[in-house]
Amino acid sequence: MRDMETVLNYRRSTGRWALILTVLIAGTAVLVLQSVILAILAPAGVDRLLALQLSFDGATFNAIKTGLSQVGIDAIMAHFPFDFVLIFFYAAGGFALMSLIMTPKPRAMDSLSVLHRVSLIRAFRGLRRVQGLRILPILAALCDIVENVLEIGLLKNIVPAMDSTVLPATLLSISKWSFLALACIVGLASIWYRIKHRHFVRK
């Protein structure tokens, strides 16, 4: 039994280090890619891109697009390849970070009081109930991908800019930011929950 426990603890420890490494690599990539994207979008302006993403209807989208110079449109088009790579990294990094935050850290129970053990078991169960929310960054990424594809089609006139095509792109953009905001809220709540139950404290 002791050998089995040692193996399980080793696997858990290895898994945690893999998640930490993923967070570090993905976080660095996100920062670098975001800086590159901001530089590429400079001729168009980030505010114009956000206005396009939140157009809601075809008339507004066409008005904003008409107000852009060809250089601005080219800049927006040029940022998409980097944005697709960014999506991959923030989805992977976000999932790994939430997994670290929401997965209870293995601890030795034999040195704890009965009341402390019961408290930890209840806390573990509480975290398990919401662990499915770790996929929030992935859901945001899926919305982002479809949104980008629609926007490329709209900017290249492959898809006509009508209410029926612009509104879905806008709703996907709103959903993307909503999922990311919810992921931040859940992550902060999980940190508070773990601190409250002293998961970060070793005895």
Structure description:
With 203 residues, this protein is an all-alpha fold. Helix content is 79%, strand content 0%. It is built from 7 helices and no strands. Helix 6 (136-155) runs antiparallel to helix 7 (163-196).
What is the number of helices? 7
Structural class: mainly alpha
Extended strand count: 0
Molecular shape: elongated
Multimer state: single chain
Q: Describe the sheet with the most strands.
A: none
**Residue windows where pLDDT falls under 50 for at least 5 positions:** 1-8, 108-112, 199-203
- Succession of helices and strands: HHHHHHH
Radius of gyration equals 22 Å
Quote the average pLDDT.
83
Range of strand content: under 5%
Distance between the termini: 22 Å
How much helix is in the residues?
A: over 70%
Describe this structure in a few short sentences:
The chain is mainly α and 203 residues long. The chain contains seven helices and no strands.
Key terms:
single chain; mainly alpha; 7 helices; 0% strand; elongated
